[in-house]
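DM from R.C. (forwarded with permission)

"hey, sorry to bug you on a friday — could you get me a structure for this? deadline for the figure draft is monday and I only need the backbone to look sensible"
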Amino acid sequence: MSMRSPLGRARGLGSAKEGVHHWWSQRLTAVAMVPLIFWFVVAVIGNVGADYDAMRAWLGAPINATLLILLLVALFHHAQLGLQVVIEDYVHCHAVKTAGIIATKLLAVALGAYAVVSVLFVAIGG
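My reply, with the result:
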């Protein structure tokens, strides 16, 4: 049993140096998504009632495909960061926490890659 207080035991250990990076990444993706979501909503409203061929032609424009891919990448990364914070805060078993974070990252990468490939498939006309 130690006679030191919890503050005394923690003093001098320093930070893990990861919290600020995670916080900045989450804020950066949030800021990036604001104009991208605005563009996406305007684009969807502008294409209401369009058939598949019209949407395919719209998505075939390089600027539209690029902006949609950027939105998808930012969206999935932002979601993964947010879910990681929830898991870190509310899951107390270390093994379950680690497995949850790994599963969340893998799922975000898999779904993000699927979404990007789907956009490219429609845009290129595969």
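R.C.: lifesaver. The CA atoms of residues 2 and 8 lie 10 Å apart.
me: no worries. The first helix runs from residue 6 to 10.
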